[in-house]
Design brief:
Elements lengths: L1 E7 L1 H8 L4 E7 L6 E8 L29 E5 L3 H12 L3 E6 L4 H12 L24 E2 L9 H10 L12 E2 L5 H14 L3 E4 L2 E3 L9 E3 L6 E3 L6 H9 L4 E3 L2 E10 H9 L6 H11 L7 E4 L2 E9 L2 E5 L9 E5 L7 E10 L6 H18 L7 E5 H6 L15 E3 L2 H4 L2 H17 L9 E6 L6 E3 L14 E3 L10 H21 L1
Parallel strand pairs: 4-5, 4-11, 5-8, 9-10, 11-23, 19-20
Antiparallel strand pairs: 1-3, 2-3, 6-7, 12-22, 13-18, 13-21, 14-15, 15-18, 16-17, 19-21
Helix pairs in contact: 2-5, 2-13
Length: 505
């Protein structure tokens, strides 16, 4: 088999995609005329292979029955890292026993609905905690800038095996959607249980406490434990530090979430201003709502867009009381009238300890909560141009954030290294895409959980904690990943390291 790369129009790309076997596909919006880079699979003579060619898409996974397995491994956390670690252990004939502080996806939906209506907040079941982790109900984008060792394509194949669309196998920026991902997560869970794995929901892991309460459990040090706790388990971070586990402060990024009308983003990034309404709609129908990826440097700090959600919604992502944290998501069709993205600033601990760096992040999140006048999970907001120019917004535009927004001078209360860097960053983006900075757009505070601010220090080769070798920290919560796919890959690597260790004993 060979591959043939083409640069074609969106219409031609659609024809090819529905007829032949696609290997890769990406949109090129750099020029006035939109183009699609598409790579097709061919036979040895150069003929395109039809979409239904009798050639396997990939090697199917083989999960072993581990009901009676002699070896078992405990996994803390059931997000992407924990999920893929468990699946990898099944492939190797090792029984995974999983502890998850939150609820399964069906029960999580009920708690999230209450949070969106600003009626109740469950600190153990929300957009951050529960089956599938933070990515389950916050978009499901399968894209990573990670250059880590490992087979990222295999992660995509496993998502596809459990129900993701064919596009995850070849799209440059693959996307499942927050409406579809819970079903895929449920399929993974059922596979783990059917093959003999065990999942204990509502069990919050601790190194310090005896299992005197239902939600607190002490894992015995009888064997390796994969620690996949996610980027928001600040209480667990503190317990790890108190127990003598080595954690270091690391660089992270914080900022705001900005939301524009999707039509404005379509015009700016698909160059639709010179096209008729009919032409513009045809382009959107063919390639979907426009997204963007922006980056600039301000005073030696990176300022960049993060987790851009075309046709999406902004959601409340707090994981503890009296904190206001926002994130973004898109359903599979990406048909909301809004486009939102995190806009964050690169930050460094500058000598702070892990505890001090956690406190810095939390102080900003608490400030955002109180700037909204403690109206539970209403968010502080400011029109974008007003934010850049340092002006008060007396009114706010329509916004997708369901709990609601109140006017606030984010430009005044955000730390200078964040607020002033964002102001200049937005000016830079507006010079490149005139019209990006507009008062039809709004910024909400704060986008603070784009990555973990701490790292559970581990050996690069063995994946073991440098202070507690029976612990195998992995994923975003361990400070070694930055999203669904890189966390999944890190979970696979942790499981492989554990399997290697067990085989040596």
């Amino acid at each position: 088999m060979k591959e043939c790369a083409l640069i074609v129009s969106p219409i031609k790309a659609q024809e090819l995609e529905t007829t032949y076997r696609v290997v890769r596909r990406s949109i090129d919006a750099r020029q006035r005329e939109l183009k699609v880079n598409i790579t097709l699979l061919t036979d040895d003579e150069g003929h395109y292979l039809p979409i239904d060619a009798p050639i396997p898409l990939y090697e199917q996974p083989v999960f072993q029955d581990v009901h009676q397995a002699k070896q078992s491994v405990e996994i803390v956390g059931f997000g992407p890292a924990g999920l893929f670690a468990a699946l990898t252990l099944l492939e190797k004939g090792i029984r995974p026993i999983i502890y998850e502080r939150g609820k399964d996806v069906s029960e999580r939906k009920k708690d999230i609905a209450l949070l969106n209506r600003n009626e109740a907040f469950n600190p153990e079941s929300n957009y951050c905690f529960g089956e599938g982790g933070a990515g389950t109900f916050s978009d499901g984008k399968l894209f990573s800038r990670s250059k880590k060792r490992g087979n990222m394509q295999r992660v995509m194949e496993l998502f596809h095996y459990f129900g993701a669309p064919d596009t995850v196998l070849y799209e440059a920026h693959a996307h499942i959607g927050s409406d579809k991902l819970p079903t895929i997560i449920r399929n993974m869970r059922e596979c783990i249980l059917a093959h003999g794995g065990e999942i204990r929901f509502g069990h919050k892991w601790s190194l310090l406490h005896t299992p005197s309460a239902k939600r607190s459990i002490l894992l015995q040090r009888s064997g390796p434990t994969i620690l996949a706790i996610g980027h928001s388990a600040h209480d667990t971070y503190r317990e790890l530090i108190a127990a003598g586990v080595t954690l270091d402060a690391k660089g992270c990024a914080m900022g705001v979430r900005v939301e524009h009308p999707q039509t404005l983003i379509n015009d700016l990034f698909y160059h639709l201003s010179q096209k008729s309404k009919e032409e513009s709609q045809k382009i959107i129908d063919l390639v979907g709502a426009a997204s963007y990826s922006l980056v600039t440097q301000v005073g030696g700090r990176g300022v960049y867009s993060f987790c851009m959600c075309p046709g999406g919604h902004i959601v409340p992502a707090a994981s503890e009381a009296e904190s206001c944290i926002v994130n973004g998501m898109s359903a599979s069709h990406r048909n909301s009238p809004y486009a939102n993205s995190g806009m964050v600033v690169e930050l460094h601990p500058d000598g702070r300890s892990a505890l001090e760096w956690l406190a810095y992040q939390e102080a900003i999140e608490h400030r955002a909560y109180h700037e909204a006048h403690s109206m539970t999970y209403v968010a502080p907001a400011q029109r974008l141009r007003d934010f850049v120019e340092g002006k008060e917004s007396k009114t706010l535009p329509a916004c997708s954030y369901l709990p609601g927004v109140v006017p606030s001078r984010l430009d005044l209360w955000l730390p200078d290294e964040i607020g002033k860097s964002l102001q200049q960053g937005f000016r830079d983006f507006d010079r490149k895409y005139p019209g990006f900075v507009t008062n039809d757009a709004v910024v909400l505070g704060v986008e603070s959980r784009s990555s973990s601010p701490v790292r559970i220090t581990r050996d690069a080769e063995t994946m073991q904690s440098v202070s507690h070798p029976w612990l195998y920290p992995c994923g975003e919560g361990a400070g070694y990943a930055g999203g669904i796919t890189s966390s999944a890959l890190d979970g696979i690597r942790a499981a492989e390291a554990v399997a290697t260790k067990l085989s040596e004993e």
